[in-house]
Amino acid sequence: MPDNWGFVAAAYGLTAVALLIYWRRLAKKEREMEVFKRLTAPRP
Amino acid sequence: MVKALGWLAAASVAAGLVMALGVAPREVTQGNVQRIMYVHVPLILASYLAFVVLAVASLVYLVRRDEAADRVAHASGEVGVMFVGLGIATGSIWGKPTWGTWWTWDARLTSVAILFVMYLGYLLLRGTIEDRERAARYCAVLGIVAALDIPLVHFSVYWWRTLHQPPSLMKPGGFTGSSSILWPLLVNLIAFVLLYAYFVARRVRLLRAEAEAVA
């Protein structure tokens, strides 16, 4: 049977991209939350 | 703590990649395309874990009305849906060269597709109900009911005639293949479980911060 490295690359690539997108989404939401906290914090 | 878990998960994923693409041998009948198994199986098993955690956390929420348990259920559901979606996609990519088709409505594939749709519905339900307490209650019930599909998915290959092969790891008598295949599979399984734990820990922290900001 041929090795079909293209399918292997597609499976690993798709997984890597999806995990990276989710990781970046979490980081973005955390940054937004930090900004929100700074803006709504009581001023001294 | 979360950061350390992240680094541990990243190191495990790197080790898993080396094991899957470098150390593991070329499979005799399928060739190198079988290497997809080292990402497909851990994704599916980690998604089982995610949905079991979701069901237990949902039960805890229904009994104690503990918002922390609801946040764990929410986070676990989100990561579980991503993992099972990727498990289906990688399985489909593996199926094309080995079965000659991207998809077939056999018992394993159909039951896992139902699992995916149910938990996608779980996340949509969370997004559509504005009252947080009511959303948590409804989702907890759905999360527990949906978990009943997990044994159906796992045992479907025994209960019906399917194109999908029997389980590789979680089966009676344990793993029967070569240790040169078992170790890369185990390293990748640990990597994906750590990755799941890392994502859930980060998502729970974010959900708690959002709840505090709203209060």
Can you give me a brief rundown of this structure?
The complex is a heterodimer of chains A (44) and B (215). Chain A is mostly helical and 44 residues long.
Q: What do you see in this structure?
A:
The complex is a heterodimer of chains A (44) and B (215). Helices cover 82% and strands 0% of the residues of chain A. With 44 residues, chain A is an all-alpha fold. Chain A has a domain at 16-44. Chain B has 215 residues and is an all-alpha fold. Chain B has a single domain (2-24, 33-214), classed as Up-down Bundle (Four Helix Bundle (Hemerythrin (Met), subunit A)). Chain B contains seven helices and no strands. Chain B has helices at 2-23, 37-64, 67-99, 107-128, 132-146, 149-159, 179-214. The longest helix of chain B has 36 residues, at 179-214. The chains are: A mainly alpha (44), B mainly alpha (215). The A-B interface holds A 1-5, 7-8, 10-12, 14-15, 18-19, 22-23, 26, 29-30, 33, 36-37, 40 and B 17, 21, 26, 29-33, 35-36, 39-40, 43, 79, 82, 85-86, 89-90, 93-94, 96-97, 195, 199, 202-203, 206, 209-210, 213.
Q: What key attributes describe this structure?
A:
heterodimer; A: 44 residues; mainly alpha; 1 helix; 82% helix; B: 215 residues; Four Helix Bundle (Hemerythrin (Met), subunit A); 7 helices; globular
The oligomerization state is heterodimer
The tally of beta strands of chain A, per DSSP, is: 0
Query: Sheet bearing the most strands of chain A, described?
Result: none
* CATH class categorisation of chain B: Mainly Alpha
Secondary structure category of chain B: mainly alpha
Rg of chain A = 20 Å
What is the CA-CA span between the terminal residues of chain B? 26 Å
Morphology call of chain B: globular
* Proportion of residues in β-strands of chain A: under 5%
Q: Any idea of the CATH topology of chain B?
A: Four Helix Bundle (Hemerythrin (Met), subunit A)
Q: Roughly how many Å apart are the termini of chain A? A: 71 Å
Radius of gyration of chain B: 18 Å
Regions with little confidence, pLDDT below 50 for 5+ residues of chain B: none
Q: Mean of residue pLDDT of chain A? A: 90
